[in-house]
Every structure is written in C-alpha cells, then in structure tokens.
Amino acid sequence: MYRYNPTDQQLVDDRVAQFRDQMNRFLGGRLSEDEFRPLRLQNGLYVQRHAPMLRVAIPYGTLASAQLRKLADIARRYDRGYGHFTTRCNIQFNWVRLEEVPDILAELATVQMHAIQTSGNCIRNITTDPFAGVAADELFDPRPYCEIVRQWSTLAPEFLFLPRKFKIAISGGAEDRAAVRFHDIGARARMAADGRLGFEIHVGGGLGRTPMVGRLLKDFLPREELLNYFEAILRVYNRHGRRDNKYKARIKILVKDLTLEGFAREVEDEWAWSRGGPATLGDETFRSMEAFFARHDTAPAPADGTYDPAQDPAFSRWVARNVSPHRAAGQAIVTLSLKKTGVPPGDATAEQMDGIAALAERYSAGEIRVSHEQNLVLPHVARGDLPALWQGARALGLATPNIGLLTDLVCCPGGDFCSLANARSIPVADAIQQRFDDLDYLFDLGPLELNLSGCVNACGHHHIGHIGILGVDKNNEEWYQVTVGGREGERGALGRVIGPAFAAEQIPDVIQRLLEAYLAARHEGEPFIDAVERIGLEPFKARVYGGVA
Amino acid sequence: MSRLICRGELIEDRWRWVDADEAPAPAAGEGLILPLARWCAQRPGLDAARTGVWLGPDDDVAPLLPWLATLPLIAIRFPVFTDGRGYSLARLLRGRHGYAGELRAVGDVLRDQLYFLQRCGFDSFALRADQPPEEALAAFHDYSWAPLSAR
Ligand code: SF4
C-alpha cells in the first residue's frame, strides 16, 4: 500500500487547518453560504435531508486495517455507529454535526486519510478494480498509476472549478472490473507490440441524467505521458465545457458537441506542447511507486488439511460465491458481503468495521478493498485460512454467500437520506432481498446484477444493472422505472426501459416475472444478461405487462 | 481597484481598468488596461509600456501571442469565483506561451482561492472590495506544500 511521505502529510494537515478556518469564518458570518458551499463540498461535506453528510475519500478503494479502525472510531464518536460504503468506493457518514467536521478531518489525517475532492466540480476520487494487484488476469497493476494520478489531481490548482464533477477510473485486468467506459476518463492497461506499457483511453462516459458509454480517444498512450495527456484533456474541458447549464456541463456533452474527432484534435494540440515536458513520468517514478504495491506473497502458507470446501455445504456455498482466484497459487481473494437481508446495502457498523480490520490483519496482510458493488474485499488470503476466515466473517454477519447474485444488489442511500432523491431506494432493496432469500433459487438463477438509484443522478448505477430500478417522481408520488439489459465491462451497455413505472410494492412481483421470463428462455448455463442479449426485451415486457394488466 | 496585492505585498494600483464601453482617459503616471477587442484594434497607436489588456473567461489568447514579450500586464477577469476558466488561461499564458509580465486576477477574487490562483501563475490580485487584505496576504501561506501539477 502507498504510505504518505512528509509532503503528503503536510498537505492533509494544512488542509485541515485551512478548512477549520473556513468553517470558523462561516459560523462567524464572515463567509457567505454561497462562498462556503464550494469549499465545504470540496471537503466532502454535504447538507442533507436530516443532517450534514461527510463523504470520506478511500483512494482507489484501498484501506489499511488502522484506517478502517479509525473509520469505526469516527462512526462511534461523531455519527450513529455506522457508515455507508458507496459505489465510488468512498464512505459516507450520514449524521455528523457541521461544527465537528474539522475535528473529524483532523482524526482522518492521523491515519493518512481525508475528504478532499469527494464532491464539488473537480477531479474526484480515482477508482480501480477491487482486485487490482491480485487478479489472475492482470496485465499490470494499475494502483501505482492510480496513486500518481491521485497525487497529481489532489488540489490540482487549475482544475478545482471545472464546469462539473470529473471521475477517472483506471483498470489493469483483461476483464474490466472498474467500469472504465462509464467514467469521464477511463484508462485500461495495454502493452504495445514492443513491450512498452501504456493505456487505452476512453472519454466522456458516465451515468446520471444523460448516460453514455465512453468513446475511445486513444488506443495506446505510453505510460510516461499519462499526466501530460490527462492535463490536456482537462484543460480542453475546463476551457470549453458548458457552464451555462449544469445538466449539459459534463465532458460527455463537450465531446458530443465538438464530435469525438474535434475533441481529439483539441487534446492533441494541447498535448503536442506538453509532450515530453516537465510532467513526463520517468522510470524512477514508476519504480518507486511500484515498490509501495509490491506483492504480498508472504501470506501464511496453507495450514495442511484444513482446507476442504466440501466439508460443509454452507462453507462451500460461500467459497463458490465469495472467493475469487488470486494470481498466486495457494492464495485467494475474499469478498465480504455488505448485502445481508435487512441491512441497507453498503452499510457497516463500527463493530463490523473493527471486526473486519482484525480479520484483515490476521488473514489479509492488513489490507481491505472497497468494491464499487459496495462490498469489502480481503485481497491476500491463504486458502488454508478460508475456513477460519469464514467463521470470523459469519460471526460478524458478513458471510452472506450472495456475491454476484440477485441479492448482492447495489443501492444508493435514496430518499431516506439524500435531499436530491425522487424516491426511497433502501426499502425497495429490502423488499427484493426479503422476497428472494432462498439460496437454492438464487444459486440456480446464477449471476445477476440488480442496481437501484433514487433519482436520475444514478449513484446506484441503475443503467448498468442487468436489471435497473430508478426512482421517479409522478405527482409527488414515488414510482419506479425498470430497465433491463445494462451491463458493465467489456460488453458494457445501458439498460433499456421496459415500460411504464411501478409503485414500490409492485417491484418484487415485477422482478419475479422478469426472472420467470428468463428461466423460461435460458439455455443450459446461460446467465440472465446473455439471455437478454439473445432474446431481446420483448419476452420480458410481455411477461411483466401482460401479467399485470 | 485600491486593494491590490502584487507579488506578496499590498500596493497602490498604478493601472486603470477600462470597460468595453468606456472611453479611456489616463491620469498622469497611470497605465490603462484595455479590453481585448479594443487593445487589438488600437494596438499600433498605443504606448506599449503603459498599456495592458484584460481577458474575459472565454477570450482567446491567440491575438496576444506575438506581443507577449512586450506586454507589461495581462488581467484575467473572474465573473464569479467558481468560473475556473481563468486558471487555465493563466497556465496557458505562463506555461505554453512563456508570458513573463504581470498576470493579474480581477473580479470575484476571494481570499480562499488566492493560493491556487498564485499556483497557476497569477502574481497580482485585485481583490473583491469586501475582502480583508491582511487575511488575503495570509492566504498565500495556506499550504506549505506545492501541488504536483503546477511546479
Ligand atoms: S441517485 Fe439520487 S437519490 Fe440516490 S444518492 Fe444519488 S442523488 Fe441521492
């Protein structure tokens, strides 16, 4: 993992002092609400439905045990004893007190954390593959590059007042587990024919009000040029992106207005000047950064004879769903499910966080990852430790064997917390989990992603759920629009609306019918999303509306 | 434009700002800062050492490029502090085009942005009238760290 040097520490300490002063001026009436708003947002502080909300950055979703313990401590002392992990791999505290936020930020700084640029019209937290560095299919580890981009983008003075927010994802796997084509910039690891390392660059992807799949801007960018090229993109966007209408201010609209070719020309022109310039990255930078992310091939050797998935059906179910292949033989990647029925998806209590920190220390080299599906991942587990880890996770209520299944649904905080919501999302998620809690049935359905957002801002990424649910407002009532056919990864696609919206209580039945249509049509071993691609939406529409009407 | 911070000091301004619809009438010892269009139109007849130019956020720097070596002052106007275009204009002028004269931030220029403006190459700041100058001077020391992207 990356460790702060004195410069990084100085930055976060200075930032705490600066924000404390700004808060004091705001509370003392010397800084207006309008002037304070962008400052607090760039420190992760929202004013929400019930209370202020603080969003803390978890850079590329990586946490050390000590950091997770600090988050637990903050949840206990400054919130109501829990936190919510988001689809952008951050954590939100929903019940903080405004005047205590500088103290919370000071606490975070003691464990090399902060809330910088988790909101506002600036470059947000960089995201990556939760399996980065340990995935079996990886071309190279994206994390050193994530860290380089993190340092470059943190308080990047030129880009603090962009037309709108800006999200960057970088992935290294053959399979894209970071949804790079749904980000403002998405970079995928590539190797040139001569062995040079670099990235394929996509631009203008994103969900929200106007969902778009990113366009391929450059098929091979040499890694040395990463910052020069990103800076060129950002400068073109900062100068020419629309500022007159916030719904048209994302870079995707600029790319559309200029056309991809026109946009690319502007970027090339800007890059032609900076190329090979002072911000060009050197081998020394790569080497020193890579050293922070050296592999943990030192995890304890398998304890003989204790690893036998068949010994217990519950255990083998868990292994089947929650354990993924690791690049090193004898090791495994374990996903702890934050999707237990009855608990809002992505929520973890302070006790769970402490428990996970301890499990990570014992079994995973003290490291935890946050996935954009709102689960937590232990990336360095010796296979022989799986039974013991499973027992530990079970005791914490984190061993639901549902990763990648219907009940592992992704869900934003929605109308229970968020002031932008059109509808609540958590109760709908709960109703779905209650209805489909039979494990045999879920296992038989196979991989299925269901995503739920409480409004068009799409924090629940409903467009890329195999089944997506979007809360909409009709005459001040909560309704839910259903989409089918979204997917992330290589064959990324946006879901399509199946028809008129539903009331909340209809949703479990609607899901039931969609599943029936799938089960009636599927070929042997064919996952839901592949069946949708093969047969189209009609059979699903017919089953849902034919039956309801 | 009385409160002017130039290279870290509070000084008296020797430049007069000229709006697009104003007729310039310089007092003795005073320079003029002209809007880009007028500067372009009148440039051949101007006293180069005593004429600066100001840019709005969507102005193009191209007409200035041949004259950067002799331009004493370029001002960039921030209509609201959240309009970040001026930061990129500054970086373009300083970095790509090597402008070395005075680069002034004007308009909705507030204490809390000074550090970042300076990092993009501004060296003088005509603060919004209500900004306490002492606090503003302190703002240049908000961080003892230097951002990667503006070194
Ligand atoms: S999708 Fe809408 S309701 Fe849900 S968290 Fe985002 S802004 Fe709030």
Automatic annotation (TrEMBL), chain A:
<feature type="domain" description="Nitrite/Sulfite reductase ferredoxin-like">
    <location>
        <begin position="342"/>
        <end position="395"/>
    </location>
</feature>
<keyword id="KW-0479">Metal-binding</keyword>
<feature type="domain" description="Nitrite/sulphite reductase 4Fe-4S">
    <location>
        <begin position="119"/>
        <end position="273"/>
    </location>
</feature>
<comment type="similarity">
    <text>Belongs to the nitrite and sulfite reductase 4Fe-4S domain family.</text>
</comment>
<dbReference type="GO" id="GO:0051539">
    <property type="term" value="F:4 iron, 4 sulfur cluster binding"/>
</dbReference>
<keyword id="KW-0004">4Fe-4S</keyword>
<dbReference type="InterPro" id="IPR045854">
    <property type="entry name" value="NO2/SO3_Rdtase_4Fe4S_sf"/>
</dbReference>
<dbReference type="InterPro" id="IPR036136">
    <property type="entry name" value="Nit/Sulf_reduc_fer-like_dom_sf"/>
</dbReference>
<dbReference type="InterPro" id="IPR051329">
    <property type="entry name" value="NIR_SIR_4Fe-4S"/>
</dbReference>
<dbReference type="GO" id="GO:0020037">
    <property type="term" value="F:heme binding"/>
</dbReference>
<dbReference type="InterPro" id="IPR005117">
    <property type="entry name" value="NiRdtase/SiRdtase_haem-b_fer"/>
</dbReference>
<dbReference type="Pfam" id="PF03460">
    <property type="entry name" value="NIR_SIR_ferr"/>
</dbReference>
<keyword id="KW-0560">Oxidoreductase</keyword>
<dbReference type="InterPro" id="IPR006067">
    <property type="entry name" value="NO2/SO3_Rdtase_4Fe4S_dom"/>
</dbReference>
<keyword id="KW-0411">Iron-sulfur</keyword>
<dbReference type="GO" id="GO:0046872">
    <property type="term" value="F:metal ion binding"/>
</dbReference>
<dbReference type="GO" id="GO:0016491">
    <property type="term" value="F:oxidoreductase activity"/>
</dbReference>
<protein>
    <submittedName>
        <fullName>Sulfite reductase</fullName>
    </submittedName>
</protein>
<feature type="domain" description="Nitrite/sulphite reductase 4Fe-4S">
    <location>
        <begin position="408"/>
        <end position="544"/>
    </location>
</feature>
<dbReference type="Pfam" id="PF01077">
    <property type="entry name" value="NIR_SIR"/>
</dbReference>
<feature type="domain" description="Nitrite/Sulfite reductase ferredoxin-like">
    <location>
        <begin position="53"/>
        <end position="109"/>
    </location>
</feature>
<keyword id="KW-0408">Iron</keyword>
Automatic annotation (TrEMBL), chain B:
<protein>
    <recommendedName>
        <fullName>Oxidoreductase</fullName>
    </recommendedName>
</protein>
<dbReference type="InterPro" id="IPR008318">
    <property type="entry name" value="UCP030820"/>
</dbReference>
<dbReference type="Pfam" id="PF06073">
    <property type="entry name" value="DUF934"/>
</dbReference>
